[in-house]
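Sharing in case it's useful to others searching the archive later.

Someone asked me privately for the predicted structure of Acetate--CoA ligase family protein, so I'm posting the question and my answer publicly. Question first, with the sequence:
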Amino acid sequence: MDINTLLKKAKQAGKTALNESESKQLLKAFGIPVVSETVVLNKDDALSASREIGFPVVLKGLGSTFLHKTEQGMVHLNITDSQAAAAAVDSIAMVAGDQLEGFLVQPYIKGNREFAAGIFKDQQFGPVIMFGIGGTFTEALADVTFRLAPITETDAAEMLDEIRAKALLANFRGQSAADRKLLIRTLMGLSRIAVEHADIAEIDINPLLITPDGSVCAVDALAVFGNGATAIDVIPPVDPALLGYFFHPKPIAFVGASAQIGKWGHTLPINTISGGFKGDIFLVNPKGGTIAGRKVYRSVAEIPGRVDLAVVTIPAQGVINLIPQFKEKKISNMLLITSGFGETGATGKELEKQLIKQARAAGILVLGPNTMGICNPHINLYCTGVNVRPRAGSTAVVAQSGNMGTQLLAFAEHQGIGIRGFCGSGNEAMITIEDYLDAFATDSLTRTVMLYIESAKNGRRFFESARRVGKKKPIVLLKGGQSRAGNRAAASHTGAMASDTKVFDAACRQAGIVKVERSMDLLDLAAAFSSVPLPQGNRAAIMTLGGGWGVITADLCSEYRLVVPELSTEILEHLDKMLPPCWSRSNPVDIVGESDNVLPMEIMEELLKWDGCDAVINLGILGRKILVKRLMDAVLKADSTYSPEVIDSINKSLAAFEVKYIKHVVNLMEKYNKPVYGVSLMADENDQTVYRVASGRYKGLFFQTPERAVKAFAKMHEYQCFLMKE
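And my answer, the predicted structure tokens:
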């Protein structure tokens, strides 16, 4: 019987799942290795089949309602004779009752390496493939990995290497390594089933047994029908070109303008005006009058000429009444700052739904509601609830939290990270995170995307959009709500093993998203991706002012799967001529606290041109000016014979050197196309993470700790590996 016929008959019979034999027929049709077995209907046939197969055998109860046969006492292993087989049949029949469809007789296959594989349907992301440790402790150990279907052979191979128990797949205690080709074929077969048979909600293969000779065999399987997930409301996509108008308006109207300091209707226009925005700004309030010396219009209808963007801060209940006015005035973009909508509960959600319905019918695009605002430093547009003004650059930022967004902008301003544009996406009633991703893909000024998100409106679209963008420019993402695991009514171990966090992490890995765990990591990666070239490998050369610092950094490299290779004979000979005899003669290269300013510049070039490394981690050159200044201040205080002018010249000389050193590093990155991750010896309130050099393609990048530098290198290498897959 072909698979389509088998599935059709099962559904016509009202089955919610295939029995084990039928499940294995499905797997076998897609190239997945399964155990040979015989289906029988009574005790005599079971005994006959057992003798024909040859003891020891396995006897199981067969029925489409038996979802967890082991727990139900319907699996009997290692049956060595006919008497034991008869007892097993009687026991199974008593437990199964009238749900019994027959008996399954299998050869007893030796093997103590048990894995699990399967499919389940995620509400947000659709079909997901699982692989991990199997057996009776599957859920307790939770050693699993996931990928969204369809997967590639590269995805499947990565899954095998991601579980903690991957050593069991290699040669292990006299047993041969697992046949990786068969394991990959198994995962690829599951992927094909997920794509070609949407009516299969779950498949659970447990155990997927590895025999002592390395063969792979599915000895138990379950396939469950159903949608597997509740359908979600899908918000229609927004044309990226239309979204761009929000960030390049000319005339802006502030609807709900106020003269009261502290109100949104006052803060937003004041920040926009003081930020240097060159377009026309109109203030709207039914009371009229003047605010900040500007005329206040009683309605948008009174405004002369066109309005590209309306920034709305009036109370939630009144917003819907603006729709006819905006339509009449041909205002097609609304930045809805106002809260009191979907975030407040059922009543707010209904109000938001009605607003969006009317806005869509009127051809009005709504950003928000409940948003912190937007900014585009390239046109001096700083329309946000707090007064932060990062410089223009290439990092696009979207945050689903207004407070987190403004924190990111403030840090970017302080650390010299250039911003392409920022948006607090708010409730995303009409414009979602997926729309922003599609816009970033086509925006020529965006080189790096930085996201803070708590959820995706459409997980599958988010994944596909992110994967498209990720092939062109890096996406660095921090997710809030990591601890909220999804509750799944799963019939199988496969579905029960999943959580919102695990599936989201899998989607990020597969899409090439650089996912971070802390807000500082998000900012560091935004700085790194916008400042230095991508490393082509994971080999680090370390240059340090002190041995201990270098050792710690080398340990961190090992922790983050970076390699610290031994120096070649050639580079050792070069460095021997430059450094004193007491130098370490190894990587990390300890320049033993030498005060010669030329030396670190020369050693830096030697390391970058060395073909044995892919990046240089530089510890301790920048920041010496702070220590020296403190010393000079102490000298002046303790010894009046020194001239303040002489002391000042020493301070200025070292400050000038650090500027020269940054330029030298940037020029070397241009020359050798390798990144340099700097770590400052000390930092003060004037120091930044990113240092610009006139006409340089790259920028100086200096962190305050080795951990941050190493992590930046590791995450950039992770992204480079994603690019290399294609």
